C-alpha cells in the first residue's frame, strides 16, 4: 500500500526533472568563426558561453532545446559578409554554458543579461524553443530591432503535457507535474505562451516553419504570427524541424529580413 501511494509521486518528480533537464548532444561542436572568439558572461542565471566574430550591429543566433550555438552556424558567414557582428549564445545548461537544468523564463533572463551586455541588438534569429525564449525576453524588455522565429513553438504548457503523456502520466499525475514545474520555474507554465506575449511586442517579426515539422506543428507558429502585430509567416516544405537551418533559401530569407533596418 505504501509503495502504491509513493510511486506515482516519484514518477511525477522524475518526469518534472527530465522535462527541465536537457540531454547533452551526441557531439559538441563549436561554431568556427574566422577571427572569432569564445567568452563567458556571468549572469544571474550562471555563466553563459558566447561565440562572436565581426563588427558592426550585432545579430544574435539562438538555438533550440538540447541544441548548441553551432546549430545556426550556416547563418554566420552571410551575416559577417553583410557587415554584422555575429554572436551565438549557448542557453543555460546547453553547450558550454553553466547549469544542469533550464526553462524558458530562466533562459529569457540569461538572454536579457546578454542583450544588456552587448547593447541593443540589431536582430535575433532563433530556432525552436529559442523562439519562445526570445519572445519571453522581448516581453521582459530585451532591446532587439527585429526577430526571426524558425519553427517556433506556441504554448509551453502544451508541450509539457505532451511530455507528461509520453512519460506515462495522466490525470492528476499530469496536474501535479504542471504544479511542480510551475513552482520550480517560479511561473505559471500556461502563462508562458508566445501567442500571449505577441500582442504586446512591436518588433518586426518573421516566422518560418516547414509544413512537415513533426516536433513543432506549423499551426503553432501560424497562431503566434497571427497574434504578433505586423508579423510575416513563411511556410516552407519538406525541411522538417532541423533541416531548414541548413537550407539556402531559408537562410537567405531570414538574413534578408534580419539585416533590414528596424522600423
Write a concise keyword list for the protein shown above.
263 residues; Rossmann fold; globular; disordered N terminus; alpha/beta
In short:
By secondary structure, the protein is of the alpha/beta class. Helix content is 39%, strand content 19%. Helix 2 (76-81) links the parallel strand 3 and strand 4.
Describe how the helices and strands are arranged:
Elements: H1 2-20, E1 37-43, E2 46-53, E3 58-62, H2 76-81, E4 85-89, H3 104-118, E5 121-127, H4 129-139, E6 144-150, H5 156-166, H6 172-185, H7 194-197, E7 205-210, H8 218-227, E8 232-236, H9 248-259
Helix pairs in contact: 1-6, 3-4, 5-6
Could you please describe the fold and organization of this structure?
The chain is of the alpha/beta class and 263 residues long. It is 39% helix and 19% strand. The chain has a single domain (33-152, 193-259), classed as 3-Layer(aba) Sandwich (Rossmann fold), CATH 3.40.50. An eight-stranded mixed sheet has the order 1-2-4-3-5-6-7-8, with helices on both faces. The chain starts with a helix and ends with a helix. The relative contact order is 0.14. The model is unreliable at 1-8 (pLDDT under 50).
Amino acid at each position: 500500500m505504501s509503495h502504491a501511494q509513493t510511486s506515482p509521486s516519484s514518477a511525477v518528480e522524475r518526469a518534472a526533472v527530465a522535462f527541465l533537464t536537457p540531454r547533452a548532444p551526441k557531439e559538441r561542436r563549436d561554431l568556427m568563426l574566422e577571427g572569432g572568439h569564445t567568452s563567458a558572461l556571468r549572469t544571474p542565471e550562471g555563466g553563459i558561453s558566447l561565440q562572436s566574430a565581426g563588427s558592426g550591429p550585432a545579430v544574435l543566433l539562438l538555438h533550440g532545446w538540447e541544441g548548441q550555438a553551432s546549430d545556426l552556424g550556416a547563418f554566420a558567414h552571410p551575416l559577417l559578409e553583410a557587415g554584422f557582428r555575429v554572436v551565438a549564445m549557448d542557453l543555460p545548461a546547453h553547450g558550454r554554458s553553466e547549469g544542469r537544468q533550464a526553462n524558458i523564463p530562466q533562459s529569457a533572463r540569461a538572454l536579457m543579461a546578454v542583450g544588456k551586455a552587448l547593447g541593443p541588438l540589431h536582430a535575433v534569429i532563433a530556432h525552436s524553443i529559442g523562439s519562445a525564449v526570445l519572445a519571453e525576453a522581448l516581453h521582459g524588455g530585451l532591446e532587439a530591432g527585429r526577430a526571426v522565429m524558425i519553427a517556433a513553438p506556441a504554448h509551453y504548457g502544451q508541450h509539457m503535457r505532451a511530455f507528461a503523456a509520453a512519460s506515462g502520466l495522466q490525470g492528476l499525475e499530469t496536474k501535479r507535474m504542471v504544479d511542480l514545474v510551475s513552482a520550480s520555474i517560479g511561473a505559471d507554465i500556461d502563462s508562458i505562451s508566445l501567442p500571449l506575449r505577441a500582442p504586446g511586442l512591436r518588433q518586426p517579426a518573421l516566422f518560418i516553419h516547414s509544413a512537415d515539422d513533426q516536433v513543432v506543428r506549423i499551426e503553432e507558429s501560424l497562431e503566434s504570427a497571427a497574434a504578433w502585430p505586423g508579423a510575416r509567416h513563411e511556410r516552407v516544405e519538406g525541411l522538417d524541424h532541423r533541416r531548414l537551418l541548413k537550407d539556402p533559401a531559408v537562410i537567405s530569407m531570414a538574413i534578408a529580413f534580419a539585416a533590414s533596418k528596424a522600423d
